[in-house]
């Protein structure tokens, strides 16, 4: 089965840039989606199809995907961005299997 | 307002059964693939199952195959997850979500807690 690996934690000062990586074998050939989850809340889609933003998501959230690594970038980090972030792809190899990354806790210092 | 509302969670003994429901409103339910995702306490997200718009296609994570059944009722704008032979490791918050643009999970419910314990 396909595996997505994320760093457990990323710390960033307010106003700086946070970069969260998502590693997978040739992930650049797949469409990557990113979700933000705050404590006690349901996940929210923040980036889809590698780099597109749903309506209502600030431009500070951006994404890229190439080779074996996809990256979610949060610019001008705010206290409200503190959350867990998950990448996600589809593995269509045998079944339509959804795959989530291991998750990254973003802490705003 | 676009909304998904789950219900049916609770405490069940190992080997028992539970049926989760997810009521959709504010969008054309019959036009979307739907999914269940779960999250064990303190753990990450895990995809559980998908169903196509007409119910003819269904997919499951290996750990629930043969035990869980996903279904939908377009007339009632509702999604279901029948869970049988429950195990302690099935303990989690279960979320339903719609699969929208680029096959991303774009609308999520608030979740319902399932606890499997004696």
Instruction: State the total count of DSSP E strands of chain B.
Output: 11
Task: Compute the number of strand runs of chain A.
Answer: 9
N→C terminal distance of chain B: 39 Å
Relative helix content of chain A = under 10%
Helix content of chain B: under 10%
**What does the largest sheet of chain B look like?**
7 strands, mixed
Radius of gyration of chain A from CA coordinates? 13 Å
Oligomerization status of the protein chains: heterodimer
What class, by secondary structure content of chain B?
Answer: mainly beta
- Contiguous uncertain segments of 5+ residues of chain B: none
Tell me the Rg of chain B in angstroms: 13 Å
Which protein chains are joined by the largest interface, and how many residues does each one contribute?
A-B, 26 and 23 residues
Percentage beta strand of chain B: over 45%
Determine the strand fraction of chain A and express it as a percent band: 35-45%
> What's the rounded overall pLDDT mean of chain A?
96
Uncertain regions of chain A: pLDDT < 50 for 5+ in a row?
A: none
Helices and strands of chain B, in N-to-C order?
EEEEEEEEEEE
Structural class computed from helices and strand pairing of chain A: mainly beta
Termini separation of chain A comes to 36 Å
Spell the H/E element sequence of chain A.
Answer: EEEEEEEEE
